[in-house]
Each structure stands twice: as structure tokens, then as C-alpha cells.
Amino acid sequence: MFYSPRDLRFHLYEVIQAEKLTQLPRFADHDRTSFDMVLEAAGQISETLLRPLLTVMDREEPQLVDGKIRVHPQMAAIIRRFGDDGWINAPFDYKEGGQQLPTTIMNAATFIFGAANYSASVFPFLTTGAANLLRSFGSKELVDRFTPMMYAGRWQGTMALTEPDAGSSLSDISTSAEPTDVPGEYRIRGQKIYISAGDHDACENVVHLMLARIKGGPAGAKGISLFAVPQKRPELGTLVDNDVQTAGVYHKMGYKGAPIAHLMIGSAEGAVGYLVGEPHQGLRYMFQMMNEARVGVGMNAVSIGTAAYCASLDYARERPQGRPIAEKTAGSPQVPIIHHADVRRMLLFQKSVLEGSLGLLLQCSYYADLAHAGEGETAQNAALLLDLLTPIAKSYPSEMGCLTTSAAVQILGGAGYTTDFPVEQFYREARIHPIHEGTTGIHGIDLLGRKVTQHGGKGVQLLIAEMQKTIADATTYRATNMPELTYLADRLREAISRLTNVTTYLLGLASNPTLFLADATLYLEFFGIVTLAWQWLRQATVAQAALATAQGDDAAFYHGKLMAARYFYEYELVKTLALAHRLQSTDHVTLEMHSDWF
After folding, report:
1. Catalytic pick among 61, 292, 437, 572
2. pTM for the structure as a whole
């Protein structure tokens, strides 16, 4: 199996208690039964359609043939299946053909899809993001023109931002937009690179949600607008070429089954683009999609890491190699490698990072649902928590996923380095996530330089209050002699104090932005570790309570949770001691090093 249905349901129903979402009017038609049906359907599609193509999509990567990117021939049917079954617009309103499915359950389903076959899973949900931009900011005419075919899985949607001279620095984009005689229509000229699913033959058309600069508009970020630029224009019931050409397809380290394209826009007459929303608001609009995508990137990282963990766990249980260190009898039988302490360490490392990260990502999804469908202070606080946690939820699983998949390869040893087993593919695929939707360095600057202090620091205050509530819940077990929870609660309390002290120290440097943000990436790591420790205390508290009546496989599951929590605190949380020292050090080596000394 490539994921644990038992663990996913533990997060949803025992820790987060996702059924409470059905008390909100938007989700009132749902219940535990409908949620389970969604998860079961996701599992069925993953096992029958996505997982069988995992290896072949990696080995037979997309190719540019006669100006068109060719992808695996079964992708057309798969994307159409996602459209026919309502996955692409499942979170949207009933009046749009959606199911008003909570983001929490939707993201749980995408976790399953990503664990089965990451490359295949991205096509439909790139379209979801693009369609959401249109429905949120576009005119009714644009929504009616484009979204029905996007929801049906017949037209692909993309997010077209990056240019050769403007990657993370979006204020420097040069793609231009010149108004035509038709209101709302512009001629777009420029080029875009690294556009995921930017062209392929599994759909009839591609609709790019593209950033461009209206001629004569303000310089910098304030002059960027958002346009819908189709590869082919719908006119009088037919599709007409729209001067969007594919100049190349990039051949990647991993994640090979989904193409990323180099696009030339408007090389002849200029591609027709349709203004989405108001002029010069493109970055503000686009960041809605990017923030949603950032939580999605974190979930994709956990999906791939989980698939690698499951593969290495199966191998460790089955592979006989060596004998217990204390065993001195010559000729005694070899034991499965899972009996060796170092292998268990690598398995616990994966389990603690991935299951802790999954808990965080589903918690962020829950906050997204409360922010969107809740009311008053509850919605406002959820939005603040989500905004604060997004850079952590994106970056921590992404960075750590590179390490957990490496541990999976290591468990298999030489076999893990071969293509006979899937872990080498997962190792390669994991590496994209610290880059996707903003690099880790950018998210560190975002967290320390903006998120921590915005709204007077209320987001941090709310998060610490949530952590303190978890500590209080755990310490109610003191009277019943639960030393594991007492120990974890005390360590988390110390870590919160450490984080608060480091944050206060760094904010004291804010008048010197260069010094203040020099180690923002390390601060992000520090904050991420403490946040995962909070998640593990939540899981451990639930598991400890459930053990009172659990038997058999359930008892083993809960014991595993407690052990993983202990591991995280003993092996990962202790790293915050060194990070705190570094972040408060007066040795600023990265600033004092000269570029010509390398």
C-alpha cells in the first residue's frame, strides 16, 4: 500500500474531528458517510488508474513533437475521469456544479492521489486552481466561457508566471498587454517558462492564467495585471489558434510524467488575452491561487514521502539481513532488517516527520474551511492562523521530504539505488517541492519579515494559545500517571519559550533588514520543528486516551503513535537548541563573507 487509510482517518476524525465542519451551513449536506465515500473513491481511482502508471510515466517522459507536447496516452482518459466524477470543481458552489466539499476532505483526497502517482495527479488540480481564479475575480462572461470545459476535464488550466528574467521576482516580468478595440481584450506578447502542464495532447485546449504588464501602466508590482490567455480561442463554436506556441519542454530530475513548458506568446499578431478583474491587481489575485497552491505543495511533498516510507517499511519487514548484535550463535537465521535499531531509527524518522506534517497540513485545511465558511471571530482567527502557518506548511514538509525519501533509499541499501524499486523515483520527485511555489528562502523571509508581525503579531499569539491548549489537554493526564504525555508537554512548553525568546531577539534587529533576515530560512526551520512538536502532542494525547479501550491492530496503531511522538521530541525537537544558538549569535559569517572569496 502506498499510504495508510487508518492513519488518514485518525487525523481527520480523531484529531481534527472534521465532522464538526458539517455544522457550518456551507457543509450541512455532508456527513461522515459522504466524507468516507470521497476518500474511498479517491483510493479506488488511485489504485486502478494512477498507481499502475507510476513507473512508466517516469521512464517515458513527455516529448515535444511537431510543436505539441505528447504525454502518456492514458492521461486523456484519466483527466476526463476526474472531470466526469466532479473532482475538478468539487470544492465549488452547487450552482457551479460543485459539491461544496470541505477543503479538509479535498486535500485528504489529493494526498491519496499524490501518493499513488504525483505526476498524474497534478493535471486536474492545476485546472482547479486556475478555474478558482476565474470564478473569484473574472466576469460572468469569462467564467461562462472557460470554466465549464475546464470542469469537464477537456480544457487544462495553468498558472503562467515565470519568465526567463523574472523567476521569484515577479515585479520584474516583461510580458506586455496592449488593449484592443474590444473592451477587456488585450494583445499579449512575451514568453513564460517552467509552466506546469502548459501544453499537452491530453486536453483539447489550455487556458493560461497569466501575469502581464499593461502598456503605460505603473512600474514594478503595481503595474501587473491578470489575464486569461487560451492556447486556442473559442469563437462561434470552434477553437481558433491564439498565437501561443510551445518552444520547448523541460526534461526534469523527477516528476517527469507532467510536462513543464516554455511558451512563446504573441510572436505573430499577439495572443488575445482577457483581463481578469481590475487592471494592475494581478499579483494580488494571483497570490490567492499561490497561497492555496503552497499548502498543496506541502501536501504533495507528504504524499511522495509517504509512498517512499510505505515502500521502505514493506522492504524492512520482508528483507532478511544480519543478526541481532547480541546474537553470537554461528549459523543462526538472519532476521528481517526491521529488527535492527538503525533501520528502526530511519523508519521512525520518516514516520514522525510525515505523519506530523500530514497533521499540520490537514489542520491548515481545516482553518481554510473555517475562514471561508465560518463567521465572525472564528473565521477571522482561522484566517490569521492559516496565513501564519502557510510558509511552514509548505516549506517544512518540502525540505524534510528530501531527507525522508533519502532515508527510504538508505533502508533498501543498494536495491534502493536501482530502478527495480520505486524509492529512487520518489527521492528524485521530492526535490521539486522546496522550489515549487516560492523557494524555502523566500518563505523564510515571508514568515519572519511579514507574517510574524502582521496584525500586531496576533497570528503568533493565536498559535501559541492553540499550543498552550494542547499542553493543557495533555497535562490532564498527570493525575492518571501518564509520564509520556507529561514529558512531551513540558518539552513543548520549553520549546515555545525558546521560540518566543528567539523571535523577540530577531525583531530587535528589524531596523537593519539585511541582518534581520540573513538567517530567515533557519528561523523557518526552527518554527517548523516547534509546530510539528505541537502536532505530535495533539496526536499523542488522542492516542493515549484511545489506548484505554483499544485492542489488537488498533492498540498497535496507537502505541506506534506514541513512539513516533517520543522519537520526534528526542531526535528532532532537540535541534531547536542549536538553531536558537545560531539565530542569536553575533557571528554574521554569511554577511561578512565576500563574493570573491569563494
Report:
1. 437
2. 0.96
